[in-house]
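Interim report to the steering committee. The following record documents the input for Uma2 family endonuclease (61 residues).
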Amino acid sequence: MTPSTINLFKKSPPITWEKLPDDFILPDEPVDNNLQPLLAAALRESLELAGLILESMLIAS
């Protein structure tokens, strides 16, 4: 196997979006992300299986 280099300085694609109309009303209520606990648990499990989480670490989500 030969070592390969990874280019970490790839140029990001331009991201653009259209401006909302001036009369567009955004709600003031916070929006809950129902998938956040599931994603946090999956990430924690994958980090734990990879041995990257130690017993002495405090993990919050």
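The CA atoms of residues 33 and 39 lie 10 Å apart. The committee is asked to note this result when reviewing the revised timeline.
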